[in-house]
Amino acid sequence: MAVSLTRVVGFCAMHRLHRLDWTDAENRAAFGSLSDPPGHTHDYRCAVTVGGPVSPPMMMVMDLPLLDRILDDEVVKPFDGKNINRDVPAFADGSTIPTCEAIAAHIFARVAARLPEGVTLERVRVLEDATLHADCFGPV
Length: 140
Known about the structure:
alpha+beta; four-stranded antiparallel beta sheet; elongated
């Protein structure tokens, strides 16, 4: 029987929607006040869904403490308390704007690489707030 398991973690981080190769006016036209320095903060939530076969008697997709360690290493520690544009290497060079979608895709790749054999990453959902989230279902 195939089952999925979702764990949610949180982090508080700042980001700015800003392209380095655009003028301030172009950024303002595209992103509005979201392009203003130094950026703005969100209390993000990240829901990671893993799937795989389960069998009696354990009925577990994977060891939950292992999943928690992976999420701490790949989500909480790299993002919590950080300015994503400056402090997270994947976004620091300015080539990728740290949108909700880009953050979800980044986390997907990092978590997928750490899962044990037989466990698949089904979805990474990053929520900026109660009204906005992005889902990533596979590598970009």
